[in-house]
């Protein structure tokens, strides 16, 4: 892996985030704003990766760019705007930009920009995991449709649910110690979690499927059914609680 890949991921996430912040003042129509911001950030990332890593394919929610993908080969997985709805709402900061490099089905370098919070979290200089302050564990959940099985998990371990926006913002909140875990069971695409998972692991957090198995990226089918990101000292308790529930759909 190119040692500059960590720096490149962080730099491009920052640039796309800056573009989104600038674009946010272009209209007051939330739907139009989200579409325009997503398109602008996507164009920036595709152009920049094409210039700086021309031999690498790029996978995003908008499709594949560059050379053909090969199983286990290098591929950049990006989400230009994670949390389009939150981005379109004035004053909300729980949206993100994801940039990740995957090779041999593992995240090798990654960055998550939180432009509304003025923060970029990356694998080059991963944040140190803050000490847990105690009290009830806090679980990040969808602010609009928290899944029933997460309520069951919270009841089993005495946790508090914290409604939040995008998947990247939820994982970032775990990385920053604002919450203790993000439990997801409704399916996502690789671009929704590759960069956040890379940053979380670099920071020393647990990241796996809900059954404890490995997260595998860079597959032919980019769909991932579920995800758990949490403090390492909480992983065993959460995995046990998850195993006693029947996850339905969630975000």
List keywords for this structure.
251 residues; alpha+beta; Fructose-1,6-Bisphosphatase, Chain A, domain 1; D-Maltodextrin-Binding Protein, domain 2; 2 domains; 6-stranded mixed β-sheet; 7 helices; 35% helix; disordered C terminus
Concise overview:
The protein has seven helices and 13 strands. The protein is an alpha+beta fold and 251 residues long.
What does this molecule look like?
The chain is an alpha+beta fold. The chain has 2 domains: 5-122, Fructose-1,6-Bisphosphatase, Chain A, domain 1, CATH 3.30.540; 138-243, D-Maltodextrin-Binding Protein, domain 2. Helix content is 35%, strand content 24%. It contains 7 helices and 13 strands. It has helices at residues 5-23, 30-52, 84-88, 148-157, 167-175, 190-202, 235-243; strands spanning 58-60, 63-65, 75-82, 96-103, 106-114, 119-122, 138-142, 160-164, 181-184, 188-189, 206-208, 223-224, 227-230. A 6-stranded mixed β-sheet has the order 2-1-3-4-5-6, with helices on both faces. The chain has a 5-stranded mixed β-sheet with strand order 8-7-9-13-11. Strands 10-12 form a two-stranded antiparallel ribbon. A hairpin with a 2-residue loop joins strand 1 and strand 2 (63-65). Helix 1 packs antiparallel against helix 2 and helix 4 packs across helix 7. The protein starts with a helix and ends in an 8-residue tail after the last helix. Pfam families: Inositol_P. This is 3'(2'),5'-bisphosphate nucleotidase CysQ. InterPro entries: CysQ/Inositol_MonoPase (IPR050725), Inositol_monophosphatase-like (IPR000760).
